[in-house]
Write a structure and sequence with these properties.
This protein is mostly helical. Helices cover 75% and strands 0% of the residues. The model is unreliable at 1-9 (pLDDT under 50).
Length: 199
């Protein structure tokens, strides 16, 4: 007599379904861009009914919001090893590692660049919005322990804006131009941090 298959809890099934829908959405957005992507295309890619997609997401903006939250969690995990190493790195090597993490993330998540053009129709929790800035601030206090939390966050905010300014240029650039563009922004951030992180 065969053993009955394990019954998967409803919540676990729901989480798997949401993960599959987000994976499908990322693939569609990476292929056709945010504007051209549709809920129907997402459903087709996921092998789900359109009704199943709407069960979890009321519209395309909600899908993108969920992807952004997921990407924020992934970035946080990628950031941890850099925070541990920050104190022993030179400013130049620290900047190299920062951009290495960011560029690797953008390349491994091809939906990220097209999503930059998506409207931010959902208000993000302030703590979530500041998460990357807080990570930068932690890096800088590891590098220069005498920095006050306020000073570290201010430097982090400027760093964040420098990198944010690169995103639309990176999105528009041809593949072969992107590496050169990243090097230019590395120079900007290295010059700024060399002054600010000097004890």
């Amino acid at each position: 007599m065969s053993k009955p298959s394990r019954r998967v809890p409803q919540q676990e099934r729901g989480e798997r379904r949401v993960a599959g829908l987000l994976e499908a959405a990322a693939a569609v957005i990476a292929e056709v861009g945010y504007e051209a992507s549709t809920m129907t295309a997402i459903a087709d890619r996921a092998g789900a009914s359109i009704g199943a997609v709407y069960q979890y997401f009321p519209n395309k903006e909600a899908v993108v919001h969920a992807l952004r939250m997921q990407y924020g969690d992934e970035m946080e995990e990628r950031w941890k090893p850099l925070t541990r190493d920050a104190a022993k790195l030179t400013v130049k090597h620290l900047v190299d590692r920062i951009f290495e993490v960011l560029v690797d993330f953008m390349q491994s998540r091809p939906a990220y660049i097209p999503m930059l053009s998506a409207p931010k129709t959902f208000k993000r929790d302030p703590a979530a919005r500041n998460r990357l800035r807080e990570h930068f601030a932690a890096l800088y206090r590891e590098k220069r322990p005498d920095l006050t939390p306020e000073a570290a966050f201010r430097i982090a905010n400027v760093s964040f804006q420098v990198i944010k300014a690169m995103n639309p240029l990176y999105a528009e650039a041809q593949e072969q131009e992107r590496e050169e563009l990243v090097e230019e922004f590395k120079l900007v951030l290295t010059s700024y941090l060399t002054t600010r992180l000097r004890a």
